[in-house]
Specification:
Shape: elongated
Number of strands: 17
Distance between the termini: 56 Å
Structural class: alpha+beta
Largest sheet: 13 strands, antiparallel
Number of helices: 11
Radius of gyration: 36 Å
Mean pLDDT: 88
Order of helices and strands: HHEHEEEHHEHEHEEEEEEEEHHEEEHH
Helix content: 25-40%
Amino acid sequence: MCCRCCGVTQQKVWVFGIGTLMGVSGLLSVIWGPSFMDTLIMKQLPLTPTSKTFEKWEELPIPVYLHMYLWNWTNPQEVQANGVKPIFEQLGPYVYREERKKMDLEWHDNGTVTFNPRRIWYWEEEMSGGKQTDIITGPHLPSIAAAHSMKDSNIFLKVMFNQALNANGGALYTTHTASEWLFEGFYDEFLHYAMNLNNPLAPEILDDHFAWFLNRNGSKDFEGPFTVHTGVGDIKEMGEIKYWKGMNHTGWYEGECGRLNGSTTDLFVPDEPKEKALTIYIPDTCRIINLEYSGVSYEIEGIQGWKYEVTPNTFDNGQLNGNMKCYCPADRYPDDCPASGATSLAPCGDGAPMYLSADHFMYADESYANTITGFDPEYEKNNFYIIMERKMGVPLKVVANVMITLYMEQDAVIDILKGIPSFYAPLFTTSSQAQIDKALASELKLVLSLPSIARYMGVGLLCVGCILIAIGALLTWKRKWYGQAEADRLALRDNEVIESETEVVPRNE
Protein backbone atom coordinates (compact mmCIF):
# COMPACT_ATOMS: atom_id res chain seq x y z
CA MET A 1 0.00 0.00 0.00
CA CYS A 2 1.39 3.41 -1.01
CA CYS A 3 -0.11 6.40 0.81
CA ARG A 4 0.81 8.70 -2.12
CA CYS A 5 -1.27 6.49 -4.41
CA CYS A 6 -4.37 6.45 -2.22
CA GLY A 7 -6.90 9.00 -1.25
CA VAL A 8 -7.91 9.63 2.32
CA THR A 9 -10.91 7.33 2.03
CA GLN A 10 -8.78 4.55 0.61
CA GLN A 11 -6.28 4.98 3.45
CA LYS A 12 -9.07 4.66 5.98
CA VAL A 13 -10.37 1.52 4.28
CA TRP A 14 -6.93 -0.06 4.37
CA VAL A 15 -6.07 0.87 7.95
CA PHE A 16 -9.45 0.12 9.50
CA GLY A 17 -9.89 -2.97 7.31
CA ILE A 18 -6.50 -4.48 8.11
CA GLY A 19 -6.82 -3.50 11.78
CA THR A 20 -10.22 -5.15 12.02
CA LEU A 21 -9.03 -8.25 10.17
CA MET A 22 -5.96 -8.62 12.41
CA GLY A 23 -8.00 -7.95 15.54
CA VAL A 24 -10.65 -10.52 14.67
CA SER A 25 -8.00 -13.07 13.60
CA GLY A 26 -6.10 -12.45 16.80
CA LEU A 27 -9.20 -12.84 18.94
CA LEU A 28 -10.10 -16.10 17.22
CA SER A 29 -6.52 -17.33 17.66
CA VAL A 30 -6.63 -16.54 21.36
CA ILE A 31 -9.96 -18.32 21.82
CA TRP A 32 -9.58 -21.33 19.50
CA GLY A 33 -5.92 -21.34 18.45
CA PRO A 34 -4.56 -23.58 21.25
CA SER A 35 -7.32 -26.18 20.90
CA PHE A 36 -6.95 -26.14 17.10
CA MET A 37 -3.21 -26.69 17.46
CA ASP A 38 -3.79 -29.52 19.97
CA THR A 39 -6.18 -31.18 17.53
CA LEU A 40 -3.67 -30.80 14.70
CA ILE A 41 -0.89 -32.31 16.83
CA MET A 42 -3.04 -35.26 17.89
CA LYS A 43 -3.85 -35.97 14.26
CA GLN A 44 -0.13 -36.21 13.50
CA LEU A 45 0.65 -38.60 16.39
CA PRO A 46 -0.82 -41.94 15.21
CA LEU A 47 1.69 -44.49 14.02
CA THR A 48 1.83 -44.82 10.24
CA PRO A 49 4.69 -45.76 7.88
CA THR A 50 5.20 -42.08 7.05
CA SER A 51 4.60 -40.37 10.41
CA LYS A 52 7.24 -38.66 12.56
CA THR A 53 6.17 -40.96 15.38
CA PHE A 54 7.17 -43.98 13.31
CA GLU A 55 10.75 -42.78 12.90
CA LYS A 56 11.27 -42.67 16.66
CA TRP A 57 9.25 -45.82 17.38
CA GLU A 58 10.83 -48.17 14.84
CA GLU A 59 14.32 -47.56 16.17
CA LEU A 60 14.63 -45.86 19.54
CA PRO A 61 16.58 -42.62 19.02
CA ILE A 62 17.91 -42.37 22.59
CA PRO A 63 20.44 -44.69 24.24
CA VAL A 64 19.13 -47.32 26.63
CA TYR A 65 21.52 -48.90 29.10
CA LEU A 66 21.03 -52.29 30.71
CA HIS A 67 22.53 -52.33 34.20
CA MET A 68 22.94 -55.90 35.38
CA TYR A 69 23.76 -56.74 38.98
CA LEU A 70 24.81 -60.28 39.84
CA TRP A 71 24.64 -61.71 43.34
CA ASN A 72 27.70 -63.55 44.57
CA TRP A 73 27.07 -66.29 47.13
CA THR A 74 30.03 -66.01 49.50
CA ASN A 75 29.44 -68.98 51.88
CA PRO A 76 27.81 -71.84 49.92
CA GLN A 77 30.08 -74.51 51.45
CA GLU A 78 29.14 -73.49 55.00
CA VAL A 79 25.45 -73.38 54.12
CA GLN A 80 25.60 -76.86 52.62
CA ALA A 81 27.72 -78.35 55.40
CA ASN A 82 26.33 -76.61 58.48
CA GLY A 83 23.05 -74.99 57.45
CA VAL A 84 24.24 -71.47 58.35
CA LYS A 85 22.50 -68.35 57.08
CA PRO A 86 23.45 -67.65 53.44
CA ILE A 87 25.42 -64.48 52.66
CA PHE A 88 25.14 -62.75 49.28
CA GLU A 89 26.78 -59.62 47.92
CA GLN A 90 25.54 -57.63 44.97
CA LEU A 91 28.19 -57.06 42.30
CA GLY A 92 28.11 -54.67 39.38
CA PRO A 93 26.64 -52.96 37.62
CA TYR A 94 27.66 -54.71 34.42
CA VAL A 95 26.46 -52.16 31.88
CA TYR A 96 25.45 -52.82 28.29
CA ARG A 97 24.24 -50.27 25.77
CA GLU A 98 21.01 -51.49 24.26
CA GLU A 99 19.83 -50.84 20.72
CA ARG A 100 16.18 -51.55 19.98
CA LYS A 101 14.55 -51.98 16.61
CA LYS A 102 11.17 -53.27 15.44
CA MET A 103 11.53 -55.99 12.83
CA ASP A 104 9.18 -57.73 10.36
CA LEU A 105 6.54 -54.98 10.47
CA GLU A 106 3.07 -55.97 9.30
CA TRP A 107 0.38 -53.28 9.13
CA HIS A 108 -3.26 -54.27 9.55
CA ASP A 109 -6.49 -52.63 8.38
CA ASN A 110 -7.91 -52.51 11.90
CA GLY A 111 -5.39 -49.90 13.04
CA THR A 112 -2.80 -52.28 14.48
CA VAL A 113 0.75 -53.26 13.60
CA THR A 114 2.64 -56.47 14.36
CA PHE A 115 6.40 -56.55 14.89
CA ASN A 116 9.23 -58.55 16.39
CA PRO A 117 11.38 -56.60 18.87
CA ARG A 118 15.12 -57.00 18.41
CA ARG A 119 17.61 -55.96 21.05
CA ILE A 120 21.36 -55.77 20.64
CA TRP A 121 23.60 -55.25 23.68
CA TYR A 122 27.11 -53.78 23.60
CA TRP A 123 29.45 -53.95 26.59
CA GLU A 124 30.23 -50.55 28.17
CA GLU A 125 33.44 -50.97 30.13
CA GLU A 126 33.72 -47.37 31.37
CA MET A 127 30.19 -47.26 32.74
CA SER A 128 30.44 -50.59 34.53
CA GLY A 129 31.23 -51.22 38.16
CA GLY A 130 32.81 -54.59 37.50
CA LYS A 131 34.67 -56.64 34.91
CA GLN A 132 33.20 -59.31 32.67
CA THR A 133 35.86 -61.61 34.11
CA ASP A 134 34.59 -61.24 37.68
CA ILE A 135 34.14 -64.65 39.32
CA ILE A 136 30.64 -65.15 40.69
CA THR A 137 29.11 -68.05 42.58
CA GLY A 138 25.39 -68.60 42.39
CA PRO A 139 22.78 -71.32 42.85
CA HIS A 140 22.80 -74.07 40.23
CA LEU A 141 19.38 -73.30 38.78
CA PRO A 142 18.98 -76.47 36.64
CA SER A 143 19.56 -78.72 39.67
CA ILE A 144 17.35 -76.69 42.01
CA ALA A 145 14.53 -76.47 39.46
CA ALA A 146 14.67 -80.21 38.77
CA ALA A 147 14.74 -80.99 42.50
CA HIS A 148 11.75 -78.73 43.08
CA SER A 149 9.78 -80.58 40.42
CA MET A 150 10.31 -83.77 42.46
CA LYS A 151 9.23 -82.15 45.71
CA ASP A 152 5.95 -84.04 46.06
CA SER A 153 7.05 -87.29 44.37
CA ASN A 154 7.12 -90.60 46.24
CA ILE A 155 10.29 -91.72 47.98
CA PHE A 156 11.22 -94.24 45.28
CA LEU A 157 11.18 -91.66 42.50
CA LYS A 158 13.09 -89.16 44.61
CA VAL A 159 15.82 -91.70 45.38
CA MET A 160 16.16 -92.50 41.68
CA PHE A 161 16.26 -88.81 40.84
CA ASN A 162 18.86 -88.14 43.53
CA GLN A 163 21.15 -90.81 42.10
CA ALA A 164 20.78 -89.37 38.58
CA LEU A 165 21.41 -85.85 39.87
CA ASN A 166 24.59 -86.87 41.70
CA ALA A 167 25.90 -88.84 38.74
CA ASN A 168 25.29 -86.16 36.11
CA GLY A 169 26.63 -82.87 37.40
CA GLY A 170 23.91 -81.92 39.85
CA ALA A 171 25.02 -79.28 42.35
CA LEU A 172 23.78 -76.78 44.90
CA TYR A 173 25.89 -73.98 43.42
CA THR A 174 28.26 -73.23 40.57
CA THR A 175 30.94 -70.63 39.81
CA HIS A 176 31.52 -68.78 36.53
CA THR A 177 32.51 -65.39 35.16
CA ALA A 178 30.06 -62.51 34.89
CA SER A 179 30.03 -62.68 31.09
CA GLU A 180 29.29 -66.41 31.21
CA TRP A 181 26.37 -65.86 33.59
CA LEU A 182 24.94 -63.06 31.45
CA PHE A 183 25.37 -63.60 27.69
CA GLU A 184 28.26 -65.90 26.84
CA GLY A 185 26.94 -69.01 28.58
CA PHE A 186 28.72 -72.05 29.95
CA TYR A 187 28.44 -75.77 29.32
CA ASP A 188 26.44 -77.56 31.99
CA GLU A 189 26.72 -81.29 32.48
CA PHE A 190 23.33 -81.68 34.11
CA LEU A 191 21.62 -79.72 31.31
CA HIS A 192 23.36 -81.98 28.80
CA TYR A 193 22.00 -85.01 30.65
CA ALA A 194 18.49 -83.53 30.85
CA MET A 195 18.54 -82.51 27.19
CA ASN A 196 19.14 -86.12 26.13
CA LEU A 197 16.76 -87.59 28.70
CA ASN A 198 13.68 -89.06 27.08
CA ASN A 199 11.16 -88.03 29.71
CA PRO A 200 7.81 -86.72 28.44
CA LEU A 201 7.01 -85.30 31.90
CA ALA A 202 10.10 -83.09 32.02
CA PRO A 203 10.25 -79.68 30.29
CA GLU A 204 12.00 -79.64 26.92
CA ILE A 205 15.69 -78.65 27.16
CA LEU A 206 16.96 -77.04 23.96
CA ASP A 207 20.56 -76.27 24.91
CA ASP A 208 23.21 -77.73 27.20
CA HIS A 209 24.63 -74.26 27.83
CA PHE A 210 23.30 -71.84 30.41
CA ALA A 211 23.19 -68.04 30.73
CA TRP A 212 20.54 -65.62 31.86
CA PHE A 213 20.40 -64.06 28.37
CA LEU A 214 21.59 -67.03 26.33
CA ASN A 215 20.97 -66.65 22.57
CA ARG A 216 19.11 -63.36 23.08
CA ASN A 217 21.67 -60.80 21.93
CA GLY A 218 20.57 -59.67 18.47
CA SER A 219 17.68 -62.13 18.25
CA LYS A 220 14.44 -60.85 16.73
CA ASP A 221 12.48 -63.99 17.59
CA PHE A 222 13.23 -64.53 21.27
CA GLU A 223 10.54 -62.26 22.75
CA GLY A 224 7.90 -63.17 20.17
CA PRO A 225 5.70 -60.93 17.99
CA PHE A 226 3.65 -58.10 19.47
CA THR A 227 0.55 -56.53 17.96
CA VAL A 228 -0.15 -52.99 19.18
CA HIS A 229 -2.67 -50.32 18.24
CA THR A 230 -1.29 -47.50 16.09
CA GLY A 231 -3.77 -44.87 17.28
CA VAL A 232 -5.26 -44.58 13.79
CA GLY A 233 -9.00 -44.19 14.29
CA ASP A 234 -8.72 -43.95 18.08
CA ILE A 235 -5.83 -42.02 19.62
CA LYS A 236 -6.82 -43.30 23.07
CA GLU A 237 -5.67 -46.80 22.09
CA MET A 238 -2.30 -45.74 20.76
CA GLY A 239 0.43 -48.15 21.89
CA GLU A 240 -1.97 -50.52 23.63
CA ILE A 241 -0.97 -54.17 23.35
CA LYS A 242 -3.61 -56.23 21.57
CA TYR A 243 -1.76 -59.52 21.12
CA TRP A 244 1.48 -61.17 22.07
CA LYS A 245 2.40 -64.30 20.15
CA GLY A 246 -1.08 -64.13 18.64
CA MET A 247 -2.88 -64.23 22.01
CA ASN A 248 -4.53 -61.59 24.17
CA HIS A 249 -3.97 -63.58 27.38
CA THR A 250 -0.70 -65.03 28.69
CA GLY A 251 -2.37 -68.15 30.08
CA TRP A 252 0.01 -68.03 33.06
CA TYR A 253 -2.40 -66.36 35.47
CA GLU A 254 -6.17 -66.35 35.57
CA GLY A 255 -8.51 -63.48 34.71
CA GLU A 256 -7.19 -59.96 34.70
CA CYS A 257 -3.78 -61.08 35.98
CA GLY A 258 -3.13 -62.84 32.69
CA ARG A 259 -4.84 -60.40 30.34
CA LEU A 260 -2.51 -58.48 28.05
CA ASN A 261 -2.88 -54.74 28.21
CA GLY A 262 -0.84 -51.62 28.63
CA SER A 263 2.28 -50.64 26.71
CA THR A 264 5.55 -52.27 25.68
CA THR A 265 7.20 -49.06 27.06
CA ASP A 266 7.93 -47.76 23.54
CA LEU A 267 4.57 -46.08 22.88
CA PHE A 268 2.02 -44.65 25.31
CA VAL A 269 -1.45 -43.14 24.98
CA PRO A 270 -1.10 -39.34 24.79
CA ASP A 271 -3.06 -36.71 26.73
CA GLU A 272 -4.10 -38.97 29.59
CA PRO A 273 -4.96 -37.65 33.09
CA LYS A 274 -1.80 -37.46 35.15
CA GLU A 275 -3.46 -39.43 37.97
CA LYS A 276 -3.96 -42.48 35.75
CA ALA A 277 -1.48 -45.31 36.42
CA LEU A 278 0.92 -46.54 33.74
CA THR A 279 0.55 -50.17 32.75
CA ILE A 280 3.44 -51.93 31.02
CA TYR A 281 4.09 -55.48 29.90
CA ILE A 282 7.59 -56.95 29.68
CA PRO A 283 7.79 -60.63 28.62
CA ASP A 284 10.65 -61.33 31.04
CA THR A 285 8.42 -60.39 33.97
CA CYS A 286 5.64 -62.71 32.79
CA ARG A 287 3.00 -60.20 33.88
CA ILE A 288 1.80 -56.63 33.57
CA ILE A 289 3.22 -54.08 35.98
CA ASN A 290 1.23 -51.06 37.16
CA LEU A 291 3.20 -47.95 38.06
CA GLU A 292 1.19 -45.64 40.30
CA TYR A 293 1.07 -41.83 40.15
CA SER A 294 3.28 -40.44 42.90
CA GLY A 295 2.14 -36.82 42.76
CA VAL A 296 5.75 -35.72 42.34
CA SER A 297 6.88 -33.75 39.30
CA TYR A 298 10.37 -33.43 37.84
CA GLU A 299 11.87 -31.21 35.18
CA ILE A 300 14.12 -33.01 32.73
CA GLU A 301 15.80 -31.06 29.91
CA GLY A 302 13.35 -28.24 30.56
CA ILE A 303 10.25 -30.45 30.30
CA GLN A 304 7.93 -31.18 33.21
CA GLY A 305 7.10 -34.81 33.85
CA TRP A 306 5.31 -36.79 36.53
CA LYS A 307 6.72 -39.75 38.42
CA TYR A 308 5.04 -43.18 38.30
CA GLU A 309 6.51 -45.92 40.45
CA VAL A 310 6.05 -49.31 42.06
CA THR A 311 4.21 -49.41 45.38
CA PRO A 312 3.53 -52.09 48.02
CA ASN A 313 0.59 -53.18 45.83
CA THR A 314 2.65 -53.77 42.69
CA PHE A 315 3.86 -57.29 43.47
CA ASP A 316 1.07 -58.19 45.85
CA ASN A 317 -0.79 -61.48 45.35
CA GLY A 318 -4.05 -60.72 47.13
CA GLN A 319 -2.95 -60.15 50.70
CA LEU A 320 -3.04 -56.37 50.42
CA ASN A 321 -5.36 -56.04 47.44
CA GLY A 322 -8.00 -58.68 46.82
CA ASN A 323 -7.95 -57.95 43.09
CA MET A 324 -4.40 -59.34 42.92
CA LYS A 325 -5.30 -62.78 44.26
CA CYS A 326 -5.17 -64.24 40.76
CA TYR A 327 -1.35 -63.98 40.90
CA CYS A 328 -1.39 -66.95 43.27
CA PRO A 329 -4.25 -69.18 42.06
CA ALA A 330 -5.23 -71.75 44.66
CA ASP A 331 -5.74 -74.54 42.14
CA ARG A 332 -2.10 -74.31 41.02
CA TYR A 333 -0.37 -73.51 44.28
CA PRO A 334 -2.67 -74.41 47.15
CA ASP A 335 0.18 -74.47 49.67
CA ASP A 336 2.65 -72.15 48.02
CA CYS A 337 1.22 -68.64 48.03
CA PRO A 338 4.18 -66.47 48.99
CA ALA A 339 3.92 -63.44 51.23
CA SER A 340 3.12 -60.08 49.65
CA GLY A 341 5.87 -58.49 47.61
CA ALA A 342 6.89 -61.18 45.12
CA THR A 343 5.24 -62.85 42.14
CA SER A 344 5.90 -66.49 41.35
CA LEU A 345 7.46 -67.01 37.93
CA ALA A 346 6.82 -70.74 38.04
CA PRO A 347 3.88 -70.61 35.59
CA CYS A 348 6.10 -69.14 32.87
CA GLY A 349 9.36 -70.74 34.03
CA ASP A 350 8.61 -74.45 33.62
CA GLY A 351 7.76 -74.68 37.31
CA ALA A 352 11.10 -73.38 38.63
CA PRO A 353 10.61 -71.75 42.06
CA MET A 354 11.70 -68.31 40.87
CA TYR A 355 10.18 -65.03 42.00
CA LEU A 356 9.92 -61.50 40.64
CA SER A 357 10.07 -58.54 43.01
CA ALA A 358 11.30 -55.03 43.47
CA ASP A 359 15.08 -54.83 43.93
CA HIS A 360 16.28 -55.89 47.39
CA PHE A 361 12.68 -56.91 48.17
CA MET A 362 11.70 -53.26 48.59
CA TYR A 363 8.08 -53.05 49.81
CA ALA A 364 7.98 -56.84 50.28
CA ASP A 365 7.13 -58.74 53.43
CA GLU A 366 10.17 -58.89 55.71
CA SER A 367 10.10 -62.68 55.62
CA TYR A 368 11.84 -62.57 52.24
CA ALA A 369 14.82 -60.41 53.13
CA ASN A 370 15.31 -62.06 56.52
CA THR A 371 16.27 -65.39 54.96
CA ILE A 372 19.74 -64.20 53.89
CA THR A 373 22.33 -61.57 54.69
CA GLY A 374 22.79 -59.01 51.90
CA PHE A 375 19.46 -57.29 51.27
CA ASP A 376 19.43 -53.56 52.06
CA PRO A 377 16.72 -51.72 50.10
CA GLU A 378 17.20 -48.02 49.34
CA TYR A 379 14.30 -46.09 47.80
CA GLU A 380 16.34 -43.86 45.49
CA LYS A 381 18.66 -46.63 44.36
CA ASN A 382 16.31 -49.59 44.02
CA ASN A 383 13.10 -47.92 42.87
CA PHE A 384 11.30 -48.82 39.61
CA TYR A 385 9.85 -45.67 38.06
CA ILE A 386 9.04 -43.75 34.91
CA ILE A 387 8.94 -39.95 34.65
CA MET A 388 6.30 -39.28 32.02
CA GLU A 389 5.30 -36.20 30.05
CA ARG A 390 1.59 -36.95 29.79
CA LYS A 391 0.52 -34.48 27.09
CA MET A 392 2.42 -36.31 24.36
CA GLY A 393 2.82 -39.58 26.27
CA VAL A 394 6.62 -39.46 26.12
CA PRO A 395 8.77 -41.05 28.86
CA LEU A 396 11.43 -38.55 29.94
CA LYS A 397 13.30 -40.97 32.17
CA VAL A 398 13.00 -44.70 32.83
CA VAL A 399 14.63 -46.69 35.61
CA ALA A 400 13.19 -50.22 35.60
CA ASN A 401 14.66 -52.22 38.48
CA VAL A 402 13.45 -55.76 39.12
CA MET A 403 15.07 -58.65 40.98
CA ILE A 404 14.82 -62.36 40.31
CA THR A 405 15.25 -64.77 43.21
CA LEU A 406 15.23 -68.55 43.59
CA TYR A 407 13.50 -70.20 46.53
CA MET A 408 15.61 -72.96 48.01
CA GLU A 409 14.56 -75.35 50.76
CA GLN A 410 15.91 -78.50 52.30
CA ASP A 411 14.97 -81.99 51.21
CA ALA A 412 15.79 -85.03 53.32
CA VAL A 413 16.26 -87.29 50.28
CA ILE A 414 18.07 -85.10 47.75
CA ASP A 415 21.70 -84.81 48.82
CA ILE A 416 22.44 -81.30 47.57
CA LEU A 417 19.52 -79.94 49.63
CA LYS A 418 19.99 -81.86 52.86
CA GLY A 419 20.26 -79.65 55.93
CA ILE A 420 20.15 -76.28 54.16
CA PRO A 421 17.85 -73.54 55.51
CA SER A 422 14.92 -72.30 53.47
CA PHE A 423 15.86 -69.01 51.79
CA TYR A 424 15.35 -66.78 48.78
CA ALA A 425 18.60 -66.71 46.84
CA PRO A 426 18.99 -63.55 44.70
CA LEU A 427 20.06 -64.45 41.18
CA PHE A 428 20.29 -61.11 39.42
CA THR A 429 18.88 -57.61 39.32
CA THR A 430 18.16 -56.03 35.97
CA SER A 431 17.80 -52.29 35.53
CA SER A 432 16.94 -50.77 32.15
CA GLN A 433 17.73 -47.07 32.22
CA ALA A 434 17.12 -44.35 29.66
CA GLN A 435 16.68 -40.58 29.61
CA ILE A 436 15.57 -38.22 26.87
CA ASP A 437 18.47 -36.43 25.18
CA LYS A 438 18.76 -32.75 24.31
CA ALA A 439 17.92 -33.18 20.62
CA LEU A 440 14.70 -35.08 21.24
CA ALA A 441 13.83 -32.80 24.14
CA SER A 442 14.12 -29.76 21.84
CA GLU A 443 11.68 -31.31 19.39
CA LEU A 444 9.29 -32.20 22.19
CA LYS A 445 9.45 -28.71 23.72
CA LEU A 446 8.65 -27.17 20.34
CA VAL A 447 5.60 -29.39 19.89
CA LEU A 448 4.44 -28.72 23.44
CA SER A 449 4.88 -24.97 22.83
CA LEU A 450 2.76 -24.82 19.67
CA PRO A 451 -0.58 -24.20 21.48
CA SER A 452 1.03 -21.37 23.48
CA ILE A 453 2.66 -20.01 20.35
CA ALA A 454 -0.76 -19.93 18.70
CA ARG A 455 -2.18 -18.07 21.71
CA TYR A 456 0.67 -15.54 21.81
CA MET A 457 0.45 -14.98 18.07
CA GLY A 458 -3.26 -14.32 18.56
CA VAL A 459 -2.51 -11.83 21.31
CA GLY A 460 0.04 -10.18 19.05
CA LEU A 461 -2.38 -9.94 16.12
CA LEU A 462 -5.11 -8.59 18.40
CA CYS A 463 -2.79 -5.94 19.79
CA VAL A 464 -1.54 -4.88 16.35
CA GLY A 465 -5.10 -4.76 15.06
CA CYS A 466 -6.24 -2.61 18.00
CA ILE A 467 -3.25 -0.33 17.53
CA LEU A 468 -4.06 0.13 13.83
CA ILE A 469 -7.68 0.94 14.60
CA ALA A 470 -6.60 3.37 17.34
CA ILE A 471 -4.13 5.05 14.99
CA GLY A 472 -6.82 5.31 12.33
CA ALA A 473 -9.25 6.83 14.82
CA LEU A 474 -6.63 9.31 16.03
CA LEU A 475 -5.69 10.33 12.47
CA THR A 476 -9.36 10.78 11.67
CA TRP A 477 -9.97 12.90 14.78
CA LYS A 478 -6.82 15.01 14.21
CA ARG A 479 -7.42 15.00 10.45
CA LYS A 480 -3.80 13.96 9.91
CA TRP A 481 -4.21 11.47 7.10
CA TYR A 482 -1.74 11.87 4.24
CA GLY A 483 -3.26 14.43 1.86
CA GLN A 484 -5.93 15.40 4.39
CA ALA A 485 -5.00 19.11 4.36
CA GLU A 486 -5.19 19.31 0.58
CA ALA A 487 -8.47 17.42 0.59
CA ASP A 488 -9.85 19.76 3.25
CA ARG A 489 -8.65 22.80 1.23
CA LEU A 490 -10.28 21.52 -1.93
CA ALA A 491 -13.44 20.67 -0.04
CA LEU A 492 -13.51 24.18 1.45
CA ARG A 493 -13.00 25.82 -1.93
CA ASP A 494 -15.75 23.74 -3.47
CA ASN A 495 -18.08 24.74 -0.66
CA GLU A 496 -17.27 28.43 -1.18
CA VAL A 497 -17.92 28.15 -4.92
CA ILE A 498 -21.24 26.46 -4.29
CA GLU A 499 -22.25 29.12 -1.80
CA SER A 500 -21.28 31.99 -4.16
CA GLU A 501 -23.18 30.46 -7.02
CA THR A 502 -26.18 30.12 -4.79
CA GLU A 503 -26.06 33.82 -3.90
CA VAL A 504 -26.01 35.12 -7.54
CA VAL A 505 -28.91 33.02 -8.73
CA PRO A 506 -31.84 35.56 -9.35
CA ARG A 507 -35.06 35.05 -7.55
CA ASN A 508 -38.20 34.46 -9.55
CA GLU A 509 -40.34 37.59 -9.33
